Amino acid sequence: MPQTPSDVKAPPADAQKSASGLYSKVLQQGDGAEKPNAIDTVTVHYSGWTTDGKLFDSSVKRGEPTSFPLNQVIKGWTEGLQLMVTGEKRRFWIPADLAYGENPGGGRPGGMLVFDVELLDIKKAPEPPKTPEDVAKAPDTAETTASGLASRVLSAGTGTVKPSGADVVTIHFSGWNTAGELLQSTVMNGQPAVFPLNQVNIEGWKEGLQLMVAGEKRRLWVPAKLAFGENPPPGAPTGDIVFDIELLDVKKAPKPPETPADVAAAPDTAEKTASGISHRVLQKGTGTDHPKASDTVSVHYTGWTTDGKMFDSSVTRGEPTSFPLNRVIKGWTEGVQLMVVGEKRRFWIPADLAYGENPGGGAPGGTLVFDIELLEIAK
Questions:
Q1: What angle do CA 50, 51, 54 make, to 5 degrees?
Q2: Of 32, 72, 165, 253, which sees the most CB atoms within 10 A?
Q3: Which CATH class is domain 143-251?
Q4: Kind of pairing, strands 241-251 and 168-177?
Q5: Is 56 one of the catalytic residues?
Q6: C-alpha span between 354 and 347 (Å, rounded)
Q7: Catalytic: 370?
Q8: Which CATH number fits domain 271-378: 3.60.150.10, 3.10.50.40, 1.10.10.60, 3.30.450.40?
Q9: How far lies 188's CA from each of 37, 69, 81, 272, 295, in Å?
Q10: Active-site residue among 240, 355, 371, 372?
Q11: Under 8 Å CB-to-CB from 318, ≥6 apart: which residues?
Q12: Is 0.85 topped by the overall pTM?
């Protein structure tokens, strides 16, 4: 257990103070020569206390250091760790406005926080991608679609198949606003983005990526209406956005499951529980144990509304899903407990055991029909 610092209540006279109000004191000299930048990823050991001496978090206590991009943590850490070199250990007194605020809620500590941080490693971020010279406006040589999406090929691809529908794409991208400010870049993060094409929320990406083949790099000028819209969600960029996208891989989606013939209503042969769930076995299982509500299960599933519209499917994504059985809709919690491993069953789940009649937020309403295959039970 990390020992509470004797000076946890307030920074001592020999602590250094920055212009922002951050106090710090070196506890152990480092052996490195280079300091991290805000975009770098650092690995640290740390312990954090409130000024009344309460330990609220500690990687030391967990016995495992933590890594993170330095620009994705509280302001006091972003600033403070840039003062350090590898091997150094430093104590920080971080005022509320550089931490979580005075009364942050959500279980986070408020007020001034005290951290002992040891910088173990720095992973330098790649150089930011160069801002395109034509970032402000698409050149006359760009192709423009009927929707207003402009694009031009930066380098030809080696593939022959273009993604569509629920295909899973792997891409590297960088995005700028038309003033040339870099908004986001997987190139800098060093990790490509992977997603089903039909689940991306940028319409310009859905359209633009379908013009591409694997290995191709293309610049897209995406008007606001095809990006995050005229009234974007909090934190999303506004206006037109320019993207350089490299399509690394296309994984064709499995064929969507056929809509059940009995999707509109449960047949007379279906069993019905006291709560109102109708169900019937489609494929017998090989297991003998039934999961409990507290178990974690792995399943493949497809869901339809009673008019035959498929709204979700792990089958089309090509990847099963796992979850604690007591953290899903009530109809799943009850229904999956009827099954054994290897079994496939169809459920007709009434609205009160699903998402309700008019749930909003994109969730389907009314009675829902699910085909579920139970793959594994983790006790």
A1: 45
A2: 253
A3: alpha beta
A4: antiparallel
A5: no
A6: 11
A7: yes
A8: 3.10.50.40
A9: 13, 11, 19, 54, 39
A10: 355
A11: 168, 251, 253, 254
A12: no
- Among the four given CATH numbers 1.10.10.10, 2.40.50.100, 3.10.50.40, 3.20.20.450, the one describing domain 16-123: 3.10.50.40
Return d(Cα 61, Cα 326) in angstroms, integer. 30
What are the pLDDT digits (tens) for 286-295?
999 999 999 9
Nearest C-alpha neighbor of 91 from the set 16, 25, 162: 25
Give me 293's structure tokens: 């509500």
Place of tokens 């805000």: 38
User: 301-322 pLDDT, tens per residue?
Assistant: 999 999 999 999 999 887 899 9
Tell me the two tokens of residue 269. Answer: 């042969």
- Is residue 202 annotated as part of the catalytic site, yes or no? no
Q: Within 13 A of 229's CA, how many CA atoms are on the CB side?
A: 6
- pLDDT band, very low/low/confident/very high, at 105 (cuts 50, 70, 90): confident
Known catalytic residue at 240: no
| 323 is an active site residue | no
Report CA Rg, the chain.
27
3-state class of 339 per DSSP?
coil
Q: How many residues does the chain have?
A: 379
Residue in 39, 57, 295, 329 annotated catalytic: 329
CB 373 within 8 A of CB 317: no
